[in-house]
UniProtKB/TrEMBL annotation:
It comes from the Eukaryota. This is DUF4283 domain-containing protein/zf-CCHC_4 domain-containing protein. InterPro entries: At4g02000-like, DUF4283. Residues 10-89 form the DUF4283 domain. Pfam families: DUF4283.
Length: 207
């Protein structure tokens, strides 16, 4: 495919977010009605249904998209909506989500770690850092850092990150999670918990 066609196609989605619900499916019609009440103040948006329960949320501007992303987490009927930036060449997200974006709050951070590189290095202990909220990136509030991290289902959610300062002192950076998704230890996915795993011996669907 010619590069100019791909570039033009990518522009169509440059203000979009990729989202999905974990543990429960939300009907499309209800989804728009609920989110329109929450998001309409920042501009118009459209919802596009992809495969495996994935939705693409397209906004009129970068500012509207970033406001939605930075003011989460969001939910519909109590079901968490996981959101991340749409990126060109982003691989399709399969059913049974092995990775999921989660907002984390890091506290007791040494001052010398307050750079984009330093905070990203701390967050990388948890998973792949995706982005920071504006207050964190601008160092407006340095009592804690708020970072969105793509976490894997086969990894733990630690409450503490231990890091060593240049003088050898070990500092414990505390971690809080805005939301703890259900995890299946058997399937290593966030789509359901171990207790209701369809592969659990003796578990039968009711008729």
């Amino acid at each position: 495919m010619p590069e100019e066609i791909l570039v033009e196609g990518a522009k169509e989605w440059e203000h979009a977010l990729v989202g999905f619900f974990v543990g429960k499916k939300i009907p499309f019609r209800s989804l728009f009605a609920v989110l329109n009440k929450k998001w309409s103040s920042v501009g118009k948006f459209t919802i596009h249904t992809a495969e495996n329960g994935i939705f693409i949320f397209k906004y009129e501007s970068e500012a509207a998209r970033d406001w939605i992303l930075n003011n989460g987490p969001w939910d519909v009927w109590g079901v968490h909506l996981a959101l991340r930036l749409w990126e060109r060449d982003l691989p399709p997200i399969s059913s049974g989500f092995a990775k999921i974006p989660v907002w984390v709050k890091l506290m007791n951070i040494p001052m010398e770690y307050w750079t984009v590189q330093g905070l990203s290095r701390l967050a990388s202990v948890l998973g792949s850092p995706l982005h920071m909220d504006p207050a964190t990136e601008g160092k407006q509030l340095i009592s804690f850092a708020r970072i969105c991290v793509e976490m894997k289902a086969d990894k733990e959610f630690p409450a503490v990150i231990k890091t060593r300062r240049s003088n050898g002192e070990v500092v414990e950076v505390k971690v809080e999670y805005s939301w703890r998704p259900p995890v299946c230890d058997r399937c290593k996915v966030f789509d359901h918990s171990t207790r209701v795993c369809p592969l659990k011996p003796g578990l039968r669907a009711e008729v």
